[in-house]
Amino acid sequence: HLFGCDAGILALTDWKTPDIYEFFSGKKSCSFTFADMYDSLFPELKLQTNGKFGGGAASPASMKKRAALLSHIKLKTNAPALFDLGIWKTDANGIAAGKVKLPDFTGSMLLSAVTADSTRTGSGKSELTIKDRTGVTVSLPAAAAPGDEFESVFTLFNFDLPAGEGTFSLELPESWKALSKKDFTFSLAKGGQAVCRIKLLVPEKTGNHAIRYIYTFKSGKETVKKTGTATLAVRHKIPEGMESSFSLLPRGGNLVVSGKNDKWYPDPFSVTVTISDSPLSLLSDALDFLRSYPYGCLEQTAAGAFPMLSANALYACGLISKEHMQTANRTVMQASYRILSMLRYDGSFSMWPGAGNEFRSGTLFASHFLFEAEEKTSLSIPITARNLICRHLYNIADDASLARGERAYAAYILALADSSRFLKPARNLLADGKQDLASLFASAALIRGGFAAEGAYHMKQTLEKEVWREKDMPYSCADDNVRAGMVLYLLSRADAKAPGSLKLLDRLQQTLRKDGLGWGTTQANAWAVLGISSWAEANQLALDREAKNKTIGIIHLSSGKKIPVLTGKSVELQLEKDGENRIINNDSPGLFITMRTRGIMRKGVEKANGITVKREYLNKEGKVITKAAHGELVTVRLTTWTETFVPDAVIVDLLPGGLEIEDGSLATREKVSPGMDPDSPTVKFKENRHDRFLLFCDLEGKQVYTYKARAVIRGKYANCAIAAEKMYDPDTAALSLPEGFFEVK
User: Fold this and answer.
1) Is the distance from CB of 209 to CB of 232 less than 8 angstroms?
2) SS3 call for 436
3) Which pLDDT score is estimated for 34?
4) Which of 142, 208, 666, 718 gives 20 to 30 Å between its CA and that of 125?
5) What is the CB neighbour count within 10 angstroms for residue 29?
6) d(Cα 550, Cα 567) in Å, to the nearest integer?
């Protein structure tokens, strides 16, 4: 098997070709995982500051120690320039010969081959220089904001031709402006190079912009022309926002809506309207939120895929496309494999791949998803993993020292997994006669596990108490909407006609947010979608789409086009920016209309709700700076303040265009410290993206985190927003919109 890889990337990481004989015959670390139960038998006894022996909450020192241990977590990186050149067959002399089409590549490529037959194995390598007769390299920012000014650099090469004359020109997209000349002429000797620097002004229009260049080199009678495009992402210095409004249009009513709004920038900007005669149209914002949520921890992976278990019902009501419905199984399978990659040795799950500690509420939620997915799709959980998970769930369900909600939820999941071990803990939870949310889960476990009469008796008593209003149940990150969706989902599986169902539906309708976030968090949105769609399925509201063709309304667009609204089918369309559009309800008891406006507000609004956040750039002396020399290493200092403990926070720091996050693992880069500070937060995960830095952590009081960035592209760049939020409570959030510019000289 033959592979090629960019040798420059391998040099950056000090990569060495593996020794295949060492791999198979060398020393190996022990593959066993060792564990003990001494912590459970003999808890660690310490003399506390109050003079008493015992356990208790973790001390600040231990929390900082944990943060230091987690700082080794590997960051996601872009895939290397690796090329699979196929499988080759050797002759009797061990020689393989043939032709291969090389990729469009300039530079040194390392060719690596691995070979094997029934008795022998081997490997080899060779370096190959690939070059055209002329070439171009381009240097642009990773991303820029409207109004930024920067210096683009194009380096032109004459690799192999005799000396001659060259020309270079740039073709800019519409609305771009060059602040210096963009046409050049020059002479180049063989092996020579020329550098063209062009100052550009970034336009208001966002998106990916293609900058086209033309390099022509004439040597004697021969002329070589090379053209290409360089792509630059333009995004605003503040994040995109959304507003959402919901209305019910009665029979005979009409509503005028417009796609124009002066408080938003013209680009990016869109107004989308969804019209349906089904209450399931309430789910459109929630589904949008789950599809676009940018992080990938355990809970968010499960939450994003959980609604796809109801894909048929969502499609029948027009809330997802046929393509989404047909690929739902694949979406569920991909999420399941990622979740299983976070499985720990004891059957619990960590919050991120490779993280060490159990994420208890995430373990319950992810286990629930896996066993539901196994029941409804082609997923088959490996038997070893299944046994580990079930054993851990039983340990939770049978542990009287844990919260009742967690124990009951674990018992329900065990029943879902067809494990008989659910019965003892479920009955124990019901034995004390309490009528709380834990009792509802325990009774649902009995119904699911084949003890329907016993479970129904307890469930009826419990529902009379409206137990879904309990706080911190069944786990700490569950809010009222999570509980409403969970209970509606359970009732749809156990007793679809239960009187509490309509109360829960009304509750979810009343609490739908107006900012386009659905019910606000991944958990709440996932459970609301599951609960409402399962209720609709159980009550046969999601009927065959093809049978629903009665016209009940009409949409008059400003362009003159008319679009019918049919029974049981959602209509979703993007309004034109000019003119008025009229929606008429001819023959429906009520049309549910959701309007979503998405874009960038002209006047950004700073937020400091429970969290305050600030960013500063420092030089090597620790002084705050607003400019840096080209190539200089800059320290980025993030400071947060909270009045109370804020678990599971995420900080998103958008970088100005001229800075690039420093990767200390590269051989050519300065080794940098992991950013720990005496007041640093408890870091759970961190991620470098091409134009932003993400930090997942717990916050309390004043805390400081630093990371490194390098000034790489000369120019003047707008200072960008920095945001922080509690992932399971979007109202606990901060948005800082610094003024001014950062300059790379």
Assistant:
1) yes
2) coil
3) 54
4) 666
5) 5
6) 5
Res. 414 pLDDT band, cuts 50 70 90: very high
Quick check: 689 and 718 in contact, CB under 8 A?
no
Give the CA radius of gyration of the chain: 30
Count of all residues that appear for the chain in the document:
745
Residue 258 identity (one-letter amino acid): S
Residue pLDDT, tens place only, 84-134: 778 888 888 888 888 877 766 677 888 888 887 777 777 888 888 877 889
Six token digits for residue 546: 């093809």
In the chain, the amino acid numbered 425 is P
pLDDT value at 58 more than 50: no
pLDDT of residue 1: 82
For residues 171 and 295, give the distance between their C-alpha atoms in angstroms, rounded to a whole number.
37
Tokens of 89: 């067959």
Task: Please name the helix (run of DSSP H) or strand (run of DSSP E) that holds residue 654, with its range, or none.
Answer: strand 646-654
- Gap between the Cα atoms of 350 and 338, Å rounded: 12
Answer whether residue 152 shows pLDDT above 80: yes
- Given a contact cutoff of 8 angstroms between Cβ atoms, the answer to whether 455 and 408 are in contact is no
pLDDT tens string 308-354: 888 887 777 667 777 778 888 888 998 999 999 899 999 999 988 87
pLDDT tens by residue, 531-546 = 888 887 776 654 444 4
Rounded alpha-carbon distances, angstroms, from residue 680 to 61, 76, 354, 684: 11, 22, 21, 12
Across-strand partners of 136?
Answer: 156
Cα separation values, 483 from 282, 301, 311, 469, 531, Å:
17, 19, 22, 7, 10
Secondary structure percentages of the chain, helix, strand, coil, to 5: 30, 35, 40
- SS3 call for 114: strand
User: Interior CA angle at 696 toward 623 and 66, to 5°?
Assistant: 90
User: For residues 342 and 358, is the Cβ–Cβ distance under 8 A?
Assistant: no
Torsion of CA 100, 101, 105, 107, to 10 degrees: 30
Buried b / exposed e over 482-493, threshold 16 CB at 10 Å, is: bbbbbbbbbbbb
Query: What is the value of pTM for the model shown?
Result: 0.69
